[in-house]
């Protein structure tokens, strides 16, 4: 039963050329989780009556199930539709700086498992292939799930990825530069492979389940050890010609500044990235520390740590002001480990944004100034986004 | 006959909620001019056979005509389809710095008339309303066209426009700030009103007929008296929350630089805009001149004028390098009066772009470096784009 369902679903989700109304409804369900008939009609552009008929057929063939959703507050639970969780699963893999993390989820957007494997820094591809394959096999055994219903594997990578799936220079994974992700993983996993860089995946997670649900245009700004981000326009994540759209960490902050690993001088990341912060803490405050400890210390009142985060916020706001002048988005989602500092980071960031950007909230009375919110997934946004790649069919490598 | 056609066309083009296959085909024809069956199938996502059937029906009702198109070179002319030129017309209006320009075109994308009316600088709205109405009426009389078949009027404005059609602070037309374009023109013209800022319109013209045909992602960079631009992502022009997306002239070039009219310091426009260039020519070279004369002089070998343009190119390239780092587009269309200088501008611009941007052509061997081309419409891109607003149904004010 589950296998037959899986075959139906694969056909409808993976064959991009089939632009039938049924396939559009199934893709909307896959991309959005539990949704109402009206939401599906809005997303697909189909008439409500057409959507109802299709949902009826899909329920009869067990591809779709009815679920109750409850909005915050009082009121009756609303009826929504979701793909049958038994119809398929999706795996997201983070190729991180020092870990490989794997999340297994079903097509109804339930997380079944979330495992992290530590790796030494600068790990090489060959060891990862075996670990990933082994871990995925075990997860399917452990949860008694049919591997045949795995719809695809999404990869979130610390570094830019070309549209064809090759890891580009500038990646935080030096041993992976030039690697073709599909050529590496498809023969082993025998499943469709999806990939995008980890900040783009983070944006997808915030769009699907986090701080930017139903927001068609926003910018994700990620302040972690490195600085990166993503641009979402008309509901789609921009990848860029070489996969480097949203690399805000390499906006030139000072053209006479220190040399950056990217080959430019004075990049934003050198002033407000987590590595710059811990370096300074070590040099000036004589404390060997991690980014998480700096944030924790600042929140607990340590004035040295607090100042480091405030100064990072000031510089970050200047860089973001350029992004605002260029893109004028209605929403910034501030993400990454540094965002855990909350207002200690956000207050100076917003002040310098306002000072250096074109459209100032002082001069626009009608709500045109952007909102700044902290992301919902500060810990596992990238891996959740890798799951989302498969569910939203973004970054499919062919 | 023409009137009946016009009514049919209006229904299919203007009612956004009707997402029928027929409406999709008609919109593809309106947006693209003369196109083949396969191109329509690609644009609409409909099956080729469905498109053929629909085109047959539309030809029988005279809404569509067959035309021959000839690609450059040898070979038989290809058969394409276009909307019947008698089925409708569209008007584009430029509200420029010192002129109001009006282009009348039919739905087959033929320009019927192109008139320019000089206005004194800082002209006020009330005089323009009457002129526009009067000129449009006369054009329809002169060409014996039924006014009833006018599908809409598009406005290209020197300055940002809010999504609701209000002219925003920062406009080059100080007397128009706060003006609601729809409230102003709809009662007089009694037609659907479309509007966007002139650089966004310029991008539309380059997409429809110019240097970026069939390019889904590009950046238009306009170097004229002011500096502006537009971002096209997935085939759509980004407007931004306050209408200021693409205002590249206000990227901060030097945070300690001179005050800009926007309220920031050291904006890019103050270093590479045409006004900055003619100001310097006057102060340092002691010559009162226009941007066109500077460009003409430089092309003729004047070393002072040449240096002014080269220096502007260097600064412009730095600003564009930030746009490249943030967006990573595959194509830059360089537009505006300064682009007439060709390589005198482009050579230093590309050199400094390469120096300051993240994805350098030196480090990417696989064609990921962006192309730079000069726009096709350096003179009337904005007014042509205003016509395009109506044909592409972009920027409709409701």
Automatic annotation (TrEMBL), chains A, B:
<dbReference type="GO" id="GO:0016301">
    <property type="term" value="F:kinase activity"/>
</dbReference>
<keyword id="KW-0418">Kinase</keyword>
<dbReference type="InterPro" id="IPR036390">
    <property type="entry name" value="WH_DNA-bd_sf"/>
</dbReference>
<dbReference type="InterPro" id="IPR049874">
    <property type="entry name" value="ROK_cs"/>
</dbReference>
<protein>
    <submittedName>
        <fullName>NBD/HSP70 family sugar kinase</fullName>
    </submittedName>
</protein>
<dbReference type="InterPro" id="IPR036388">
    <property type="entry name" value="WH-like_DNA-bd_sf"/>
</dbReference>
<dbReference type="InterPro" id="IPR043129">
    <property type="entry name" value="ATPase_NBD"/>
</dbReference>
<comment type="similarity">
    <text>Belongs to the ROK (NagC/XylR) family.</text>
</comment>
<dbReference type="Pfam" id="PF00480">
    <property type="entry name" value="ROK"/>
</dbReference>
<keyword id="KW-0808">Transferase</keyword>
<dbReference type="InterPro" id="IPR000600">
    <property type="entry name" value="ROK"/>
</dbReference>
<dbReference type="Pfam" id="PF12802">
    <property type="entry name" value="MarR_2"/>
</dbReference>
<feature type="domain" description="HTH marR-type">
    <location>
        <begin position="20"/>
        <end position="69"/>
    </location>
</feature>
<dbReference type="InterPro" id="IPR000835">
    <property type="entry name" value="HTH_MarR-typ"/>
</dbReference>
């Amino acid at each position: 039963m589950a296998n037959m369902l899986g075959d139906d679903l694969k056909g409808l989700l993976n064959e991009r050329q089939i632009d039938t109304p049924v396939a559009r409804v199934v893709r909307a369900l896959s991309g959005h989780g539990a949704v109402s008939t009206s939401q599906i009609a809005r997303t697909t552009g189909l008439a409500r009556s057409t959507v109802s008929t299709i949902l009826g057929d899909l329920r009869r063939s067990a591809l779709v199930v009815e679920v109750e959703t409850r909005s915050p507050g009082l009121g009756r639970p609303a009826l929504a539709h979701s793909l049958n969780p038994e119809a398929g699963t999706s795996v997201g893999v983070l190729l991180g700086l020092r870990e490989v993390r794997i999340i297994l989820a079903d097509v109804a957007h339930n997380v079944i498992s979330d495992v992290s494997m530590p790796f030494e820094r600068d790990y090489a591809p060959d060891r990862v292939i075996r670990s990933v394959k082994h871990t995925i096999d075990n997860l399917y055994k452990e949860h008694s799930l049919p591997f045949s219903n795995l719809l695809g594997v999404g990869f979130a990578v610390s570094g830019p990825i070309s549209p064809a799936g090759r890891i580009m220079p500038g990646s935080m994974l030096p041993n992976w530069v030039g690697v073709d992700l599909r050529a590496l993983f498809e023969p082993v996993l025998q499943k469709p492979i999806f990939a995008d860089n980890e900040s783009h995946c983070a944006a997808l997670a915030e769009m699907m389940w986090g701080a930017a649900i139903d927001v068609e245009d926003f910018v994700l700004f990620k302040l972690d050890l490195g600085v990166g981000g993503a641009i979402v326009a008309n509901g789609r994540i921009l990848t860029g010609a070489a996969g480097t759209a949203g690399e805000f960490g390499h906006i030139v902050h000072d053209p006479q500044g220190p040399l950056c690993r990217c080959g430019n001088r004075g990049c934003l990341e050198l002033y407000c990235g987590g590595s710059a912060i811990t370096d300074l803490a070590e040099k000036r405050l004589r404390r060997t520390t991690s980014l998480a400890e700096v944030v924790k210390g600042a929140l607990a009142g340590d004035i040295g740590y607090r100042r480091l985060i405030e100064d990072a916020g000031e510089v970050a706001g200047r860089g973001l002001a350029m992004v605002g002048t260029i893109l004028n988005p209605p929403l910034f989602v501030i993400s990454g480990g540094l965002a855990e500092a909350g207002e200690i980071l956000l207050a100076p960031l917003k002040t310098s944004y306002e000072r250096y950007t074109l459209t100032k909230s002082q001069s626009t009375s009608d709500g045109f100034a952007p909102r700044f919110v902290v992301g919902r997934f500060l810990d596992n946004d990238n891996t959740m986004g890798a799951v989302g790649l498969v569910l939203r069919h973004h970054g499919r490598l062919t």
